[in-house]
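## retry 2 of 3
previous attempt timed out at serialization; input unchanged, resubmitting
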Amino acid sequence: MSRAGEKRKRYTTSSDRKETAIFIQREGFQLDMACSECFKHKRKCLMDSSTSERCSECLSRNVLCDGVGVPLDSFPQLNEAADRLTAEEREAENDLVHYQKELKRVHSLIESSLAKVIRLSAQKDILRKKGHLMVQRGLLNLDELEAQEEAEEEELRQSTKRQHPEAEEEELRQSAKRQHLEAEQSRRVAETTDSFN
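## retry succeeded, writing output
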């Protein structure tokens, strides 16, 4: 009931008001912060908001009441509820951290498995192609096929050298140059060692 609603309520007699005050004293709750009237006179401030917006003392004396608050016995319940929510929040945070780590681990496993699937698929394609070549060439096993492929690759290299002799000459010059540099470096190391001795 609002204060405006209480103003519209008229107690027909002072006894009605006092009876209501007695009911509030018996059934009401003590406020955490007493109203100004109860605080000034050091009285217990009791209220029942379903009956009146004024405390029992102010209602009994028919004066204005500025008491607003919650029952004292509500605070332990509020604290317990807050503690329970805090504990549940921490548990949820711990679960979140655990699941994030687990998700990272699973993601790594997925990437590893995907790479393995791709690698095995490529190897299977190569094996299938080699199988077709074996049938086409009338070979009995993979060793024969690999030996034949190596021979073909060597023939291709030799053919390239015959078609481009300058490339072979350049390769020989580069090889000789490397050998000369290595020999020069070894000679300098030897001279340095002898100077210390």
